[in-house]
Amino acid sequence: MTYDLLIRNARVLDGTGAAPFRGDVAVCGERIVAIGDLGDAAARTLIDAGGRYLAPGFIDVHTHDDTNVIRTPAMLPKLSQGVTTVVVGNCGISASPVTLEDEVPDPMNLLGRVEDFRYPSFAAYAEAVDAATPSVNVAALVGHTSLRSQAMDDFARPAGNAEIDTMERLLRRALAEGALGLSSGLAYRNAFHAPTAEMTPLVAAVGEAGGVYTTHLRDEFAGLPGAMDEAFATARQGRVPLVISHLKCAGAGNWGGAPPALAKLEDAARGQRAHCDCYPYTAGSSTLDLGQVTDEIEITITWSEPHPEQARRPLKAIAEEWNLSLREAAERLQPAGAVYHNMSEDDMRRVLAHPLSMVGSDGLPNDPHPHPRLWGAFPRVLARYSRDLGLMPLAEAVRKMTSLSAANFDLVDRGEIREGAYADLTLFDLATLEDTADYATPVAPARGIELVVVNGTIAYRQGAATGERSGRMLRRTQRIANSLTPHSMEESP
Ligand SMILES: [Zn+2]
Questions:
Q1: What does pTM read for this prediction?
Q2: Which range of residues forms the domain containing residue 42?
Q3: CA 50 – ligand 1 centroid, Å
Q4: Which of 86, 148, 152, 258 has the fewest C-beta atoms under 10 angstroms from its C-beta?
């Protein structure tokens, strides 16, 4: 037997959270075919892991890479972290099923320019992804705000019945064409006016198709508990598994709120399938939101259309220079992007360490001065939070970026090292692993990611992409509607 690829002498973290074991992993075609002591088996490509860790390729469950996987298929910010699959379409914004003619509504402008929104159907988008052959696999949600952009002429009100029907029709078709589910971004002004009643029929359609519902909550500040209740109720009623996006306690007045928020998540998870994702930083980033402008925290401008020269500067300094209030300065900078230093380290660590949380970068690939999470989130969890600070065992950190993610997003045969699974693999050197991206120099690849294999093909090796791109669109397979079995029970502490 000659394998296509044999990785010898690795410390295998299989993604399930089990302790690592020494062994060899063999690949034929796109699948893992053998694991264990494979002796002197022959292989077309042989890699000696030298005792370094081999994990399933990381799954970035929270991305805004929708149009980047097509425009910049090398996907270096993700590949260089060991990521082999990205879930796009989060926070209510997706590139499909959308066509736009002039303006790009906020925050859909995080995804690209007007000409990037040219996929009237999910199928058209999926075909474009496959045609681009990105270096990583892509799975996609449909965004509620994106649906609104196709059904409504005014975002500042609830959708009427006919408009909800239009959204539901578009959504059902996308689900039939392989969309994973629905996302919402109810905190954003272009979705905030959608009442729960607007979400219910859409989420129910997702439930019938066996998909997932992810939500950037209506309130991540003082109103967090109520916003979580809304999400749990909507998901319960629609019979869908829920993922709360980037769970956080934002705003200085709400720091210390993680323990009750996580207790609430645990409570809900006893009766329904509920998880969250999290990035390992205490700053958030998005478009510049006037509602979040405050002097309590540091806000840095990352881009501004009318004032590009103000990028990378603190809003406070800009306001002082212009002799304006923070709010007036923020208005003058619009449309713009910002980094908000609005979380406490202790809260973030608690969410990150919790067994119901997954790792998602929330990276913004079109930001000229992006939040460092775009290039650093995954190595940062492993190196800083697991290795250096001991926040969780390495195997548990890997589980949160592999098998748990694959299970929650129904990515079949991904997220685990086992015979028969797809050969999405990441080999890293724990001793040298480091996220090098920071707020000052955010565009910087991680150190210590030695090898990344996507669908059996070596995509990244010794700090550089090989140019062999083998990612593909992962379409949701049709299944019987979800049961409400809380199979997360055993994960609950
Ligand atoms: Zn979000």
A1: 0.96
A2: 2-56+419-465
A3: 40
A4: 152
pLDDT of residue 482: 43
Q: Are residues 187 and 248 in the same domain?
A: yes
> What tens digit of pLDDT does each residue of 335-347 get?
999 999 999 999 9
Under a CB-based contact definition with an 8 Å cutoff, are residues 137 and 455 in contact?
A: yes
- Could you tell me how many residues make up the chain? 493
pLDDT value at position 478? 56
User: Does residue 198 sit within a domain?
Assistant: yes
Distance from the first to the final alpha carbon of the chain:
45
Ligand 1 centroid vs 179 CA: distance in angstroms?
19
Q: What is the pLDDT of residues 450-466, one digit of tens each?
A: 999 999 999 999 899 99
Instruction: Quote the ligand 1 centre to 219 CA distance (angstroms).
Output: 11
Same domain, residue pair 429 and 442:
yes
Determine, yes or no, domain membership for 470. Answer: no
Q: Is residue 480 part of a domain?
A: no
Residue where a domain terminates, one of 340, 365, 384: 340
Residues 156 and 252 occupy one common structural domain: yes
Measured in Å, residue 362 CA sits from the centre of ligand 1 at: 7
- Provide mean pLDDT across the span 30-53: 96
Spatial distance between the Cα atoms of 115 and 59, rounded to a whole number of angstroms: 28
**114 and 157 share a domain?**
yes
- The CA 476 to ligand 1 mean position distance, Å, reads 22
Statement: residue 487 has pLDDT above 70: no
Is 207 in the same domain as 353? yes
Segment 72-97 shows an average pLDDT of 98
Query: How many angstroms does the Cα of residue 358 sit away from the middle of ligand 1?
Result: 15
| Ligand 1: centre distance to CA 159 (Å) | 21
Please tell me the distance between residue 218's alpha carbon and the centre of ligand 1 in angstroms: 10
Alpha carbon of 19 to ligand 1 centroid (Å) = 33
- Report yes or no: 189 and 106 within 8 Å, Cβ to Cβ: yes
Q: How far is the CA of 261 from the centre of ligand 1 (A)?
A: 17
pLDDT at 325: 97
What's the number of domains the chain is made of? 3
CA of 165 to the centre of ligand 1 (A): 25
For the cut 90, the answer to whether the pLDDT of residue 190 exceeds it is yes
The answer to whether residues 188 and 50 belong to one domain is no
H/E segment holding residue 396: helix 394-399
Taking the centre of ligand 1 as the mean of its atom positions, its distance from the CA of residue 410, in whole angstroms, is 21
Q: How far is Cα 86 from Cα 459, in angstroms, rounded to an integer?
A: 15
Ligand 1 centroid – CA 481 distance (Å): 27
Q: How far is the CA of 214 from the centre of ligand 1 (A)?
A: 10
Residues 153 and 42 placed together within one structural domain of the fold: no
The CATH number given to whatever domain includes residue 428 is 2.30.40.10
Q: Is residue 477 part of a domain?
A: no
Residues 275 and 291 in one domain: no
Helix (H, G, I), strand (E, B) or coil at 230: helix
Burial class (CB in 10 A: 0-12, 13-18, 19+), 306: exposed
